[in-house]
Amino acid sequence: MQYAMLIFGDDQEWAALSPAEEQELMTQIYGWYERWQPTGKVTNDGAELQPRETAKTVRAAADGTPVTTDGPYLELKEVIGAVIMLECDDVDEATRIAASWPLGAGMSAIEVRPVMIRE
Known about the structure:
Elements: E1 2-9, H1 11-15, H2 19-36, E2 47-48, E3 56-60, E4 66-70, E5 79-87, H3 91-99, E6 109-114
Antiparallel strand pairs: 1-5, 1-6, 2-5, 3-4
């Protein structure tokens, strides 16, 4: 079954890292991929997202027409910063793999969610 591994954090913390700190964290992340990709549990390279200031949000207006605004405009400190797809036997296995992710500055939580399959 497929699971989405959503990495949450404060992208401003990530942006505040020194180049050396960012490189150290990226080395740990590459190590995570080296551990899990050969097992077939990681089904893509993941997608690191640009900072929240680059986002556009589309919402429905009162009359149902789409309205586009800059940014997420949520009163949240944490936003989704990356998405990685996993192929696991069950949610417990997906959670164990997610728990081995190297959480560092700008990364405070990981949500594991089953992917909806419609046939």
